[in-house]
Amino acid sequence: MTEPALVVRGLEAGYGKIQVLWGVDLEVAAGSFLAVIGANGAGKTTLLRALTGLIPVRRGEVHALGRPLRGLSAAQIVRGRVGHVPEGRQLFPLMTVRENLDAGADYLPAARPRAERNRALVYELFPRLREREGQIAGTLSGGERQMVAIGRALMSDPKLLLVDEPSLGLSPALASDVFTALGQIASEGVTVVLVEQNVQRSLQLADQAVVLEHGAVRQRGTGAELLADPAVRAAYLSL
């Protein structure tokens, strides 16, 4: 039996005196696509930040790709082939598209030998980035910046990719391009965990999905099951 790509048990985390996550349990099969949905303030971004070492885990265990992550730094986690596309893109605005992409592999000895292959994959997913390879990132559109952010994470050669609100602020057409690319990334064998405000598209893509409410998992099932659930539709799809 294949080992899960991500196992989370009893995860608790927060900021200062404020606790946000309360006993979160997740298990994500290798090569699958998990959507995490929930209202604003439910703890979705906090979950991804705790998984990638950006905030400390207060209680519980996290195992990714067969090794424990609790106590590791964000740098150690990304070196272990866990990629993170944070909310807000966070590019280097004065560097070119190519320089931003290459930054995803430059400081990772295991990723550097595969940089050319991974860059070719990024350009296949996002042909527009090949056209804008020499353009300064700060002059790109919002959709193009999101493509660079995803591409930079792919340059780290991840086996597990965590993506936070990729369609935020994008036009429907550009958002559709991003979702299509995420589906293709999953089809390449990369395990994807997606936090996203577009619940319908997320659940359409997802093999598995969870509903996060007040920092805890309240519901789980396949993407199709949650998409058909009347309570989910009423709460998150205005249907």
Structure overview:
- The protein has helices at 44-51, 74-79, 97-106, 115-125, 127-131, 142-155, 172-187, 199-205, 223-228, 230-236; strands at residues 6-15, 18-28, 33-37, 59-64, 67-68, 82-85, 160-164, 191-195, 208-213, 216-222.
- It has 239 residues and is of the alpha/beta class.
- The chain has a single domain (6-236), classed as Rossmann fold (3-Layer(aba) Sandwich), CATH 3.40.50.
- The strands form 2 sheets. A 6-stranded mixed sheet has the order 6-7-8-3-9-10, with helices on both faces. A 4-stranded antiparallel sheet has the order 2-1-4-5, with helices on one face.
- Strand 7, helix 7 and strand 8 (191-195) form a beta-alpha-beta unit.
- It starts with 5 loop residues before the first strand and ends with a helix.
- 46% of the residues are buried.
Give a short synopsis of this structure.
This protein is α/β, with parallel strands linked by helices and 239 residues long. The protein has helices at residues 44-51, 74-79, 97-106, 115-125, 127-131, 142-155, 172-187, 199-205, 223-228, 230-236, and strands spanning 6-15, 18-28, 33-37, 59-64, 67-68, 82-85, 160-164, 191-195, 208-213, 216-222.
